[in-house]
């Protein structure tokens, strides 16, 4: 499953919060790639 988050360019606070939520709270095994600096693509295994 692949989810694309469009978070914009800034200080990276939203991007970090998304990763923390997926890794720590939901305990999902994810890999991240950045297609565009304002987009994070999450692949859930």
Sheet with the most strands: spatial strand order: 1-3-2
Question: Unreliable stretches, pLDDT < 50, 5 or more residues?
Answer: none
Described by the principal axes of the CA atoms, the overall outline is flat
Number of domains: 1
Number of helices: 1
| SSE sequence, one letter per element | EHEE
Largest sheet: 3 strands, antiparallel
Task: Tell me what portion of residues adopts beta-strand conformation.
Answer: 25-35%
> How many β-strands, per DSSP?
3
Average residue-wise pLDDT: 78
Fraction of residues in H or I helices: 25-40%
Kindly provide the radius of gyration, computed on alpha-carbon positions and rounded to a whole number of angstroms: 10 Å
What is the fold's blueprint, element by element?
Elements: E1 2-6, H1 13-25, E2 30-33, E3 39-44
Antiparallel strand pairs: 1-3, 2-3
Core attributes:
45 residues; alpha+beta; 1 helix; 29% helix; flat
Overview of the structural elements:
The chain has 45 residues and is α+β, with helices and mostly antiparallel strands. Helix content is 29%, strand content 33%. It has one helix at 13-25; strands spanning 2-6, 30-33, 39-44. Strands 1-3-2 form a three-stranded antiparallel sheet, with helices on one face. A hairpin with a 5-residue loop joins strand 2 (30-33) and strand 3. It is flat, with a radius of gyration of 10 Å.
In short:
The chain has 45 residues and is α+β, with helices and mostly antiparallel strands.
């Amino acid at each position: 499953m692949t989810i694309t988050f469009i978070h914009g360019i800034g200080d990276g606070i939203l991007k970090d919060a998304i990763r923390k939520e997926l890794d720590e709270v939901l305990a999902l095994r994810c890999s991240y790639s950045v297609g565009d600096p304002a987009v994070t693509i999450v692949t859930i295994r």
